[in-house]
Sequence to fold (280 residues):
Amino acid sequence: MRIALAKLLLQQPNLLLLDEPTNHLDLEVRNWLEDYLHNYPHAFVLISHDRFFLDATVDQIAEIWNKRVYFYSGNYAKYLDQKTQRFEQLAAAAKNQRERIEQLEIFINRFRYQATKAKQVQSRIKELEKIERIELPPEEKTIHFTFPQPKPSGRSVVELVGASKSYGTKEVLKNVDLVIERGDRVALVGVNGAGILRPASSKTSANSPPSRPKPNCATYWVVFCSGTTMSSSPSASSPAESATVTHCCGCCCVQPIFYCLMSPPTTSTCEPRMFCSTPC
Fold:
């Protein structure tokens, strides 16, 4: 898509038709395209869900709503203001019209059969027939949804100690130390092809070297956590069976952590009281 977009822009046609041009573009290229369209010497028609991109590139908005097309001058932010004002003015006009219609109908019904008021009644009947009713457009449907409240996590959600990741000879991460605590907001940024999502979706294998010293207790469990799946395996000195936790509360780190447990977890859900304690 990026190659097709570049070829199209190099031609500089008199009219550009762009449907979601920012899809599959990284932040750097998106910003470049924003500046390019802002200074484009010819006309273009743009469809986009990126309101900030629209604010910086367009000076007219065409809205298709209720079987009609409405035109607004300005960018997307001004369009929202004008749309609100237009609806308020339309609602006020519809209210005034309803009040006038009620006045006419009351007068007609009251004096319809009085000869002295016949001329006035006919005049108001004609006025009533000429009125074009103002219809308010239906309200736009809104989607209401809520996210279920998750179980509280531990203070430390993700912890990396000397983490490294590579794909063949391509090294993506090297000796990374990272701690993400509950409530942190983290953005992964970079150019396309830099492997931004791959480290985030990487899974810790059972052969990963431990990042913490082994405990001195006789029986311990090595716990691995990645995303929402956590698995635990007994130590070499413990013959107990391995266990798998299918839902992690987020308190464990992606590096192996040793816990002094006399037996594997008996449930498939990671309970805070099971693993949210200080490791050995």
